[in-house]
Amino acid sequence: MDDDVPRVVLRPVAEGDLDLLEQLTNDPVAAGEHQWFGWHDPGYLRRRWQETGMLTAETGMLVPTLGGRVLGLVSWHRSRTGPTSYCWNVGLVLAPEARGHGYGTEAQRLLAEYLFAHTQLNRVEATTEVDNRAEQRSLEKAGFTREGVLRGYGFRDGEWRDTVVYSVVRSDLAKS
């Protein structure tokens, strides 16, 4: 890649990011069709940032940036997969003007690499609604494998929706 072309970079959430992050999670237009799950406590993110900086052993949030401009957020939480095993479940929300440029693909790939480099878990998974074709393409380009459909899995906008599960495991990154 050309060194003069800005690349997506992940960094910790700063206090100055909180207004945008709140907008992306609590404004139906900014969140977009597939990320709007209803109104919630408007101070939640600010309190979480003050308490933990959005980074704990079980959950986290980073902001993808391009040339210093915040594009949105990536997040993860630890999810139980068995009596003594866990994986990471990741998510992404981009600002409306950042969508459709490949930034989400790069951010999700970087997040999986980050989690594998700094934690011992073997699996990173993501889910998206079956009609969110843009996110499915993004996950596939980021190296995730489509595993299947979970019927009636997520509730949004008054109805139960089918969800597609994607994953990447450590050995997948070694192949790329």
TrEMBL record:
Q: What Pfam families does the database record attribute to this sequence?
A: Acetyltransf_3
Which Enzyme Commission numbers does its entry carry?
A: 2.-.-.-
* A GO cellular component annotation in the UniProt record: cytoplasm
Print the keywords alphabetically: Transferase
Tell me yes or no: is Transferase among this UniProt entry's keywords.
yes
Q: Is Transferase a UniProt keyword of this protein?
A: yes
Q: Which domain of life is it from?
A: Bacteria
- Gene3D superfamilies found in the cross-reference section: 3.40.630.30
Q: What is this protein's record name?
A: GNAT family protein
Species this protein is from: Amycolatopsis mongoliensis
